[in-house]
Fold each of these.
Amino acid sequence: MQPETALREAATGIVAAARTGSRTGIPDDFLPDHWYVAALGHEISRTPVRRVILDQPVALYRIQDGGIAALYDRCPHRSYPLSRGEVRGDALVCGYHGFTFEPSGACVSVPGQANVPRAACVRSYPVVESGPFVWIWMGDPGKADASDIPDHRWACDPAWTTFTNSATVGCRYGMLIDNLLDLSHETYIHRATIGTPDVAQTPIATEVDGLTVKVSRQMRNAQCPPFYAKATGIDGTIDRSQDIAFSVPAFYVLSVRIAAAGDPGPGCNVKIMYAITPETKRSTHDFWALSRDFATDQDRVTQTMGQIQDAIVAEDVVALEALEADYPDGRVPEVSINVDRGALQARRLIHDLIRTQSA
Ligand SMILES: [Fe+2]
């Protein structure tokens, strides 16, 4: 199929999606049988934390060996949030009437009587902590396999220096995926920090490999945006590559290489990882980790990059929340162009998963 024909069809499909919710519209149905990032490891302590994931409230806390327990955040007795209780040993004690739950979700004691009602248990969720991320499996626990966790090795590798942060965005998860897969928006939304005219002007190449969408953009002799000028100290024009690998539906890695224009060496490399975790149908947790292989011992570089990265995400939050507010039913009229190919491929894969799941 000629690209022009594909794009015409894509555009036609989008218009149809706006009316019917077909496979090219912005997805918002949940896919529970995947690993999602529930938190950054440093957020979880012996004081329980409540986090809503895929519309389910979850209480997360550390047990005595340093592991993490995740329980449905509602006591079966009177539905009080367990995250308002306290941790004793490995158990979570409800702060309302003292029902006590093990990390498995089994209730081990209730106040004033010896027998524990059989129904007084809560759901527990498989959790894996790896690198800075706390991964959770919200679907069928029998299908949870840690080897399916998307590749995030740079954030675990001491040879790379990593910093993390997170935000919650008031938009459906599909909008955040769209944003991350079409980086031409850097030229406009992030023109003060990371966008230069080269980004929007340079064509992309895309590829689908199983459940991974790859989007690549190679810029030669390009302007160096403030983010990378400050981080690398490179003066003058640069060669800049952006290679995205998005593992449907929830994990995105942008590999960036920055080098002085014409320099054939390894350059300065950054891996920008985003974990996209639906909170509700209309809000999304955005966890990120930035790993770099240069200036690895320089805290000043970490602080500068961290501040700019926070500002970049804040700019996206404003844009995405404006879009969500205008189209609360998610039926966003759209006309697609070449640069949307990666995002459209991701939508199709997600819609296929949603259809398979409902079947
Ligand atoms: Fe952005």
Note: The two ends are 29 Å apart (CA to CA).
Amino acid sequence: MAGEKSGREDPKFRHIDSFQDYVDVDLARTHGFSRSSAAKNIDPQLLESQHARLLRDGFVIIEDLVSAGQLERLRTEATAWLDKPGRNSFEGERTQRLYGLPEKCRAADDFIVHPLILAHLDRLLKPNYLLSQAQVINILSGSPAQPLHTDDGFYPWPSPKPVLSVATVFAIDDFTEDNGATVAIPGSHLWGEGRFPRDSDPRVKAVMPAGSCILFLGSLWHGGGENDAGESRMAFTGQYCEPYLRTQENYFLSVSKNTAARVSEDMRRLLGYSIHPPFMGMVNGMHPKRELPSADGPSE
Ligand SMILES: O=C(O)CCC(=O)C(=O)O
């Protein structure tokens, strides 16, 4: 009505004009955003071409990401814990899994915060994205193929979904045609609501040498392959999600505060010692790093 004051003009009606202004502002005074500096040393053209393949196919296979030494360190640390059969038929009754890795295996850090992987995640997810789960997966010979699935199925968005999560599977053993290499349906990350895999959908196997990784979007239909090779197939997998989503593993309970204080800043941020602005993740109104031993957390 003419002459009537709008809410914007009357100071007693306070409101936010844009959600972007609301969520992109870092309000923390002591522990500001810590962004990964991973992309700095990565060839931008290489990153761009891998990123383009990832968006087109839903996955990209990258070779030579970790050294034989890094693989052996993780294999040794993980093997000490891999003493149980699988939990259920989805994960594979003949597939051993090690959960809670950030507390148990420091050797996994090199895989979780691999600079090239972080550089991709920096492009795909919002700052302060989280580690949703990290596992060593050992598919024993005689294991049938895992049911194909997506890793973002539990986030209730209609498909095709925006990029909510991203995953890696690193080959600790060579992935071969018959030892359980990850199977994926190219392009399936673009499928609409209600579209499930059909037998006729073309599948690819991530056959790749140890030290390589298949990096894929959470919406890609994939699964561990059948292993009838007569020997086991060991892998490391990491899943990462947007900073506003619930993670699959609860790292606040499985990772001690002492460990969280000791790991790298990239690890600490991924474990949830970070804020999604303006205050998701706070503890008593403060940055979670203030909860860690060593005074009020590492300074930046
Ligand atoms: O082991 C693999 O290759 C994939 C495992 C997987 O997709 C899962 O457990 O969610």
Note: The domain at 34-245 is CATH 2.60.120.620 (Jelly Rolls).
